[in-house]
């Protein structure tokens, strides 16, 4: 039986609990193990205990000029997960904040020129994505939900760009066969996203005075990001190589 771990990098316990439930539902597993990196370090035997890891989002930013001790430790641990995935020791799916950590680790550039507010958006599957076991079935495009302050204009060295759009050119990429990273949030339903908005109402992801309008727009969206995680779970005990 495939063993999966949700890695939490959110300081807000309520938002973290909800994200955990979202990932478990999207992956289609009855019980998803959880590791809170804010409070606990990465175990040394991670790849021995788990076949796959999914990494949630965070209000942290890679481009922040000042990072406290906790954020530095969290980023070091996320980089270790990414290294193990690149080496083939386990499979990993990073989301939102995590894609910035991985991009920087691989020698790419993360900046603030490609933000996306809290909203639904359409991403376009690239030729590489069309041949990918996770993204291929969604080609040529898919609806997703996004909210981020930083991003990249090009994938890092060695990465295959899987999805893009005009506002944020790097929406998803794969490194090797076992490391995936998305700028958007694949785990959420529209209702999940609106529930999460309540925790980040005053943190700059959207106009707090336009909460109801933003929520209405999100709830009306048709999104299919959770299909990616379902396929990630289904393929984890098989071959994740591109077709």
Assigned CATH architecture: 3-Layer(aba) Sandwich
Do you know the CATH topology?
Answer: Rossmann fold
Would you state the CATH class? Alpha Beta
Judged by helices, strands and strand pairing, the structural class is alpha/beta
Largest sheet: 9 strands, mixed
Percent strand equals 15-25%
Task: Give the topology string: H per helix, E per strand.
Answer: EHEHEHEHEHEEEEHHH
Helix content: 25-40%
Count of helical stretches: 8
- How many domains, as an integer? 1
Mind telling me the CATH superfamily name? Class I glutamine amidotransferase (GATase) domain
Could you tell me how far the N terminus lies from the C terminus, measured between alpha carbons in angstroms? 24 Å
Radius of gyration: 16 Å
Outline the secondary-structure elements:
Blueprint: E1 4-8, H1 13-27, E2 33-36, H2 46-49, E3 52-55, H3 69-86, E4 91-95, H4 97-105, E5 116-125, H5 127-130, E6 141-148, E7 159-164, E8 172-175, E9 179-182, H6 190-197, H7 211-219, H8 225-235
Parallel strand pairs: 1-2, 1-3, 3-4, 4-9
Antiparallel strand pairs: 5-6, 5-7, 7-8, 8-9
Helix pairs in contact: 3-4, 6-7
């Amino acid at each position: 039986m495939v063993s999966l771990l949700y890695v939490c990098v959110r300081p807000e316990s309520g938002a973290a609990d909800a994200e955990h439930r979202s990932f478990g539902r999207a992956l289609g597993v009855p019980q998803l193990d959880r590791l809170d990196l804010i409070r606990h370090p990465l175990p040394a035997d991670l790849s021995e205990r788990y076949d796959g890891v999914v990494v949630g989002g965070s209000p942290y930013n890679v481009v922040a000029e000042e990072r406290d001790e906790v954020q530095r430790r969290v980023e070091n641990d996320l980089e270790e997960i990414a290294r193990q995935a690149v080496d083939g020791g386990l499979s990993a799916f990073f989301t939102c904040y995590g894609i910035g950590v991985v991009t920087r680790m691989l020698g790419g550039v993360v900046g603030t020129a490609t933000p996306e507010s809290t909203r639904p958006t359409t991403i376009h599957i690239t030729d590489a994505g069309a041949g990918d076991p996770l993204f291929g079935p969604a080609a040529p495009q898919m609806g997703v939900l996004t909210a981020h302050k930083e991003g990249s204009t090009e994938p890092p060295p060695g990465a295959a760009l899987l999805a893009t759009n005009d506002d944020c050119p790097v929406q998803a990429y794969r490194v090797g066969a076992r490391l995936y990273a998305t700028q958007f949030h694949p785990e959420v339903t529209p209702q999940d996203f609106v529930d999460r908005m309540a925790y980040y109402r005053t943190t700059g992801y959207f106009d707090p005075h336009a909460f109801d309008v933003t929520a209405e727009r999100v709830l009306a969206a048709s999104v299919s990001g959770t299909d990616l995680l379902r396929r990630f779970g289904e393929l984890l005990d098989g071959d994740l190589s591109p077709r």
